[in-house]
Structures are given as C-alpha cells and as structure tokens.
Input
Amino acid sequence: MKRIIIALLIAAFMLSAVACGNTTPATTDPVTTEAPATDAPATDAPAADADVYTVAAGNYAGAYTKESAMAGTVVYNYSATVGADGAFSYSVKFAMDGQDMDGASATGTYKIDGDKFIFTDSEGTVTEGKITAENTVVISLKASAMATSPYEITLTLSK
Output
C-alpha cells in the first residue's frame, strides 16, 4: 500500500511539473538593437552652418545680481582680461551694507575649442564656458571666497 501511495505521489509530482513547465522548445530569435538614427554629426564640432564667433583680446565686463535676505540686493561686478597670449584673469567687486568689497579673483590661461571657452586657473581648476556671440562669453565664476557656488555670468568686450 505504501508503494502505491508513493508511486501516486511521484506521478502527481511529475504531472504537475510537466503541466507548469513549458514543454515546447524555446526559440532563439536574435534580438537586434539599433541606435536611433540621428541627424547630429558624430563629433562635438559645430555644424558647418552654425555661427562661429571670436573672442578678441581685451577687457571684458559682466554683472550678476542676487537677492539676499540678509544683505538685500547685491550686484557683483566682474572685470576680466583676455590676453592675446592665452592669459585670462578676472576679479569681482560688490557692495554690501553700503561698503565696497573685493570679491573673488583668479588668473590663469584660456583656450578656445569651437564655441567653448576653457579657463584653467593657476591652481589647475578648469571651468568651461561658451562663446554665445561675437566677443561674448557665458561662464560660471565665483563671486567671492564665501560663495558656495559660482554664478553664470555673461562677459562682453568693453568698449
């Protein structure tokens, strides 16, 4: 009697395993994933019909205005010098509580790569900006040593 029960249990187990499993062989159709087609060129170079702007050597200026709960409205005035020799420097002045203050400043070198303006300061920190119009650079630079992050400013050639 035990043998019959064991045989029935084994048969029931086998039937349930077959019923739950897939008894047809799996097909192995290859799946091909293609990258979506784009019209963009494979390089970061500007498109042939894109405007190409230059940055002349000279003095540049820009400003950033910040509203602060403690200091009210603070205007950070940036002055920058772009040298024909690849030198770049900037300094910031601002007023707080009616007192003129010196902000951040840095010196280093720059290079232009397409529409990128790449500033490397004397400590080796690299900041990448963008040339957006003739003699116009948009770049993020610190306003003061106390600033937690830089501000994006637009520097334009002074006349």
About this structure: The CA atoms of residues 23 and 45 lie 56 Å apart. The radius of gyration is 33 Å. The longest strand covers residues 99-113. Strands lie at 58-68, 72-82, 87-96, 99-113, 116-121, 126-133, 136-141, 151-157.
